[in-house]
Design goal:
Number of strands of chain A: 16
Order of helices and strands of chain A: HHHHHHEEEEEEHHEEEEEEHEEEE
Number of strands of chain B: 0
Helix content of chain B: over 70%
Order of helices and strands of chain B: HHHHHHHH
CATH superfamily of chain A: Lipoprotein localisation LolA/LolB/LppX
CATH architecture of chain A: Clam
Oligomer: heterodimer
Structural class of chain A: alpha+beta
Strand content of chain B: under 5%
CATH class of the largest domain in chain B: Mainly Alpha
Largest sheet of chain A: 12 strands, mixed
Radius of gyration of chain A: 26 Å
Number of helices of chain B: 8
CATH topology of the largest domain in chain B: Rna Polymerase Sigma Factor, Chain: A
Strand content of chain A: 25-35%
CATH topology of chain A: outer membrane lipoprotein receptor (LolB), chain A
Mean pLDDT of chain A: 64
Structural class of chain B: mainly alpha
Low-confidence stretches of chain B: 97-110
Low-confidence stretches of chain A: 38-98, 190-196, 313-347
Number of helices of chain A: 9
Distance between the termini of chain B: 56 Å
CATH architecture of the largest domain in chain B: Orthogonal Bundle
Largest interface: A-B, 37 and 37 residues
Radius of gyration of chain B: 18 Å
CATH class of chain A: Mainly Beta
Shape of chain B: globular
Largest sheet of chain B: none
Shape of chain A: elongated
Number of domains of chain B: 2
Mean pLDDT of chain B: 80
CATH superfamily of the largest domain in chain B: RNA polymerase sigma factor, region 2, helix turn helix motif
Chain lengths: 347, 181
């Protein structure tokens, strides 16, 4: 049993014995250390600015310097929702390193993606349409997408990068819309790179989905849970993206994104025929670095096609054709005709 | 209150907010240094270990299944790193490589009472050492120590009392030996 005085003395001795002096966390030194090992350290979420500036320069950084280009990069998914493009790039952690994915995709010149897009009216799930689509991406030529309904080519859209022109073909109507790509759209196309989607992942919150076998491949998944940054990508009267999520799966071995799934709620605009619409998009990487026919990206309308005019937007015509079309080439919509139990035909 | 702040910071850090992680680092760095020091008995190495632990934690924060255990998790990472460093140092010694870091800090005269107390503390069992450092150097409450070490407050209290007794007993023995003619 110690006396009080002894206790105080002992406490004082122990305090002095363990006194290491003032220890302060040097954030800068720590960040330097973190930055010095970017290949080993995966940077989660919003990466440290300090590290960004050192290691995520080039395109990604340039995107971030401009509000417009930043959102252009983020436009990837909005555009996917609009059926123009889908780009299932992503990043990972726990073995699938962001930098490695970026580097790998930087070597990809062409891609073929195959998937489906399903639009369903929120108020009436019977009004639904499903497109099978094939997307072609070429760093040299641009982007092209073919959309099929039950095997019939329903639309084709091409954004020709060298010509700065876009063409929307509507084979069921034998109509076409040709329009110049604005500088902003070109930027979107240019930013439609892995870095753009990595940027999106970094800029928005995302959830890790863990490892799974996707299309027979061991992959790591990420879910972007908040697509709000995309809201301002397009004018609200064209695309009212109210909420959505996107899932990206990255092949752990090849370090390439192999699958993307997106779910979005699109508000009433004339592109959705004034319905609230759920959009479900799935795109899987089919091939990459294959030679693509430059003709796929041609913006010359085929023979027999006539220009799509404003009068073609008359609802009656749209109903007859089963199509809603946005001339800016952003959305094609078809409501399938289905019979209710009453036998009444609805559109 | 502190736990609420921690929970918010941890939640933000888990969402990838580097700023929040930085604040957590600032908050726990001295404690991690103390934990590492109790293994390494070298302040510079201890700081290295603590920084390394924070790097590892930042890299693997998504692996943390239960955010409320962040502090204990950080402590475990730091202790493991410090143990590895201590082993590496021992291997270097064994291989005849000159090791610059002393077993004990030589900043003070080891013959004085404080030096003896330090020596005794560094020979306590590892968890007792941690508790002594966290209590006397970091001025932590029993509940925070318990949280860091993943043990109960009662265990902290018991071990600290035993540690003090041992230090006192050994110190008296050492001092009486030294005063013997």
């Amino acid at each position: 049993m110690m006396h009080k005085a002894d206790e105080h003395w002992l406490d004082a001795m122990i305090s002095r014995a363990v006194d290491l002096g003032k220890v302060e966390f040097d954030r800068k030194a720590w960040l330097d250390r973190l930055a010095a090992e970017p290949q080993k350290r995966h940077l989660t979420g919003r990466a440290v600015e300090h590290v960004k500036s050192k290691y995520f320069e080039t395109i990604w950084r340039k995107i971030m310097e401009s509000r417009a280009t930043k959102y252009s990069a983020a436009a990837v998914i909005a555009l996917a929702a609009a059926l123009i493009l889908t780009n299932p790039f992503g990043a990972s952690k726990n073995g699938v390193l962001l930098a490695a994915v970026q580097e790998k995709i930087a070597q990809v010149d062409t891609m073929i993606l195959r998937g489906q897009t399903t639009f369903t009216s929120v108020s009436d799930p019977n009004i639904s349409v499903k497109y099978d689509n094939v997307k072609y991406m070429s760093r040299q030529y641009g982007f092209a997408e073919d959309g099929y309904i039950k095997g019939v080519l329903t639309y084709r859209i091409a954004l020709n990068r060298p010509q700065k022109q876009a063409l929307l073909l509507l084979p069921t109507l034998k109509k076409y819309v040709k329009f110049p790509c604005t500088e902003e759209q070109i930027k979107v196309v240019e930013r439609l790179t892995p870095t753009g989607v990595v940027d999106l992942l970094l800029e928005t919150e995302y959830r890790k989905l863990g490892t799974a076998t996707v299309d027979g491949v061991e992959a790591e998944g990420f879910e972007v849970q908040d697509l709000k940054p995309l809201e301002s990508i397009m004018p609200k009267f064209l695309l009212d993206l109210q909420k959505g999520t996107a899932t990206i799966w990255v092949d752990k071995k090849e370090l390439l994104p192999i699958r993307m799934e997106g779910d979005m709620l699109l508000g009433k605009t004339f592109t959705t025929l004034f319905m609230d619409v759920n959009c479900h998009e799935v795109a899987a990487l089919e091939k990459y670095n294959v030679e693509l026919d430059p003709g796929l990206f041609s913006t010359n309308p085929p023979e027999g096609y006539t220009p799509f005019t404003l009068s073609d937007l008359i609802p009656m015509k749209l109903s007859m054709a089963g199509l809603g079309v946005v001339p800016t080439g952003c959305l094609v919509w078809q409501s399938t005709r289905q019979r209710r139990r009453t036998g009444k035909l609805i559109v | 209150m502190t736990e609420d702040i921690d929970a918010n910071l941890v939640a933000a850090a888990l969402r990838g907010d580097a700023e929040s992680f930085g604040r957590l680092c600032e908050r726990y760095y001295p404690a991690l240094v103390a934990i590492a020091y109790s293994q390494l008995a070298d302040r510079h190495l201890a700081e290295d270990a603590a920084q390394e632990a924070l790097l590892a934690a930042y890299r693997d924060i998504a692996k943390l299944k239960r955010p409320e255990r962040l502090v204990g998790w950080l402590t475990a990472i730091c202790r493991n790193i410090a143990i590895d460093m201590a082993k590496a140092r021992a291997r270097q010694k064994h291989a005849g490589i000159e090791d610059c870091s002393p077993v004990l800090d030589t900043g003070r005269n080891e013959n004085d009472t404080v030096g003896i107390v330090r020596e005794i503390i560094l020979r306590l069992e590892p968890q007792m050492r941690d508790i002594v450092f966290l209590r006397y150097y970091n001025q932590m409450s029993y509940s925070r120590i318990a949280q860091m070490l993943g043990i109960s407050e009662e265990a902290v209290n018991g071990k600290l009392r035993r540690a003090r007794k041992m230090i006192h007993r050994q110190l008296r023995r050492r001092m009486s030996k030294e005063t013997e003619p």
